[in-house]
Amino acid sequence: MTTSNITFLDIPTVLPVPFSANTWKVRLVLNYKKLTYITRWVETTDIASVCKSLGIPPTSTLPDGTPKYTLPALIDNTTSPPALLSDSTPIIEYLERTYPDRDPSRALCPPASRALHALFEYHATHSILEQLLPVMVMHMYDKKTPRDRVHFRERIEAAFGKKLEDIELRGKEREEHWKKIEGAFDLLATFMQAGSTAGELFTGPNLSLADCTLGGILLACRYVSPDEAWIKVLAWNDGKWKRYMAVLEEWTAVV
Ligand SMILES: N[C@@H](CCC(=O)N[C@@H](CS)C(=O)NCC(=O)O)C(=O)O
């Protein structure tokens, strides 16, 4: 049995791997830093009750004013009292502070880069991650555990005021939406090509917070929609994302 001081809370699926872009973002960091950790799998249905019982803080507030709990979350028992963390970027900043690399060129998010990373995060969330729902919602639903399917349907249908099947775009609307997403990837590829010095990643051969954000989104595409989203992404920008993912592969183990 593996013993570890770090417990990472992630969401199970019916696949052998998770598919949340936000949890992948942190898992990439745990693997990159070669930290020993165990995963506690928590179905979406149970996130609030499990986080409350463990003392993990909420990440935002629901429209009715009650606290909203999300994953990823992380417990580090190395310290006393243990560190109880939620929200992907603060978790990564904590790991960076607590387990810095001896080689400064391997820093994921030096404090001076915080504003730029926040700007990138905003862009990636709004122009890519949030845009995936209308072309991936049924793929997500199918890959959730049976219990989580019920919870997912209730939550998303309440938020959108329509059935999941009607959120999913079809025909011409779907193709136009994919073009919009492709445009966001084109923009990234253009900037990355202009800025690249050594390698496929944002800042050279080493991982940065921006790579974790983008990597999480790409892993979500690969696992949620291997027959549509991932095939499209691989074909875009002269194979840029295939090469990019080949570099990230080293940090994608699920333990
Ligand atoms: N700002 C949070 C967002 C995390 C988030 O939205 N997580 C989703 C899974 S990808 C979640 O836990 N959803 C549960 C729910 O909405 O009930 C982060 O970056 O960690």
Description:
The chain is α+β, with helices and mostly antiparallel strands and 255 residues long. The protein has two domains: 6-104, Glutaredoxin; 117-251, Up-down Bundle (Glutathione S-transferase Yfyf (Class Pi), Chain A, domain 2). It has helices at residues 21-32, 47-54, 88-98, 114-127, 133-143, 146-160, 164-167, 171-195, 209-224, 229-235, 240-248; strands spanning 6-10, 37-41, 60-61, 67-68, 73-76, 83-86. The strands form two sheets. Strands 2-1-5-6 form a four-stranded mixed beta sheet, covered by helices on one side. The protein has a two-stranded antiparallel sheet with strand order 3-4. Helix 9 (209-224) crosses helix 10 (229-235). It binds glutathione.
